Amino acid sequence: MTTSTASIAVEREPQLLGQTVVVIGGSAGIGLETARFASSEGAGVIVTGRDPERLAQAASDVSARSSAAFDADDAAAVKRFFGELPEPIDHVLVAAYTRRSQGPMLELPSEEVGQGVGRRVTQVLEIARHAAPKMRPGGTLLLTGGSVRKFDREYGITPAAFAVLPPFTAALALELAPVRVNLIQAGFVDTPLAASLFADEEAAEARRDELRATLPIGRVVGPADIAALAVHLMTNTAVTGAVYDIDGGQRLIE
């Protein structure tokens, strides 16, 4: 006698239904993909970005509730944005690109090096200061950074700028509780921004080929990978002060 088993799809409630997610730097790359994923999970999404035209397209793509164009490094603009939000929010992802000087540190003015190391911290502090009063308990402030562990004189201050974020995340998690604070540290993520850091598209593709050949996962990390982790951290209310490496195992081979 044979038995046939029917495959039944089990419907589940969207993970972020009824919640509001703000994505700072949501017009491209990791921010845009996270906004898209959060929206698909039932969240009302608010996106921000520097470029009004690109932001408008992104907001349309993810069916955003609203959008606002400003530079996340502009403290007054950050204060104004959160001050004008009409309702409580649940989660904030900081995916905005932070400008920093490139090249050997000794070739840069000391003040510029100091600003480069601290700029991400001051940017996030302003966001946290003005977002926290509007956030529901148990919500998440999600930071993003890089996981550069291979040192090179041309990297300059970049490793130092990233290295300051884990202890900063832990301290901020204690100060903002019961709002949670977590950090996602990514290696190479295949976005237009990452590609723009190479001399040309041929050089960027060579790096992708190298990663496909050497990473334990056998492929290049994409923005959807980061978005999936971000949404998980929004929904797992037991996690705060944590640092997550998502680099396809790059840290194991370099």
Structure description:
The protein is of the alpha/beta class and 254 residues long. It has a single domain, classed as Rossmann fold, CATH 3.40.50.720. The chain is 43% helix and 17% strand. A seven-stranded parallel sheet has the order 3-2-1-4-5-6-7, sandwiched between helices. The longest helix is centred in the middle third of the chain and has 22 residues. The chain is globular and about 45 Å long. The termini are far apart. The N terminus is likely disordered.
Summarize the structure.
The chain contains ten helices and seven strands. By secondary structure, the protein is of the alpha/beta class.
List the helices and strands and how they pair.
Elements: E1 20-24, H1 29-40, E2 44-49, H2 52-61, E3 66-69, H3 75-84, E4 89-94, H4 110-131, E5 135-146, H5 158-163, H6 165-176, E6 180-186, H7 192-196, H8 201-214, H9 223-235, E7 243-246, H10 250-253
Parallel strand pairs: 1-2, 1-4, 2-3, 4-5, 5-6, 6-7
Helix pairs in contact: 1-9, 3-4
Order of helices and strands: EHEHEHEHEHHEHHHEH
Largest sheet: 7 strands, parallel
CATH topology: Rossmann fold
How many DSSP helices?
A: 10
Key attributes of the depicted protein:
10 helices; alpha/beta; single chain; disordered N terminus; globular
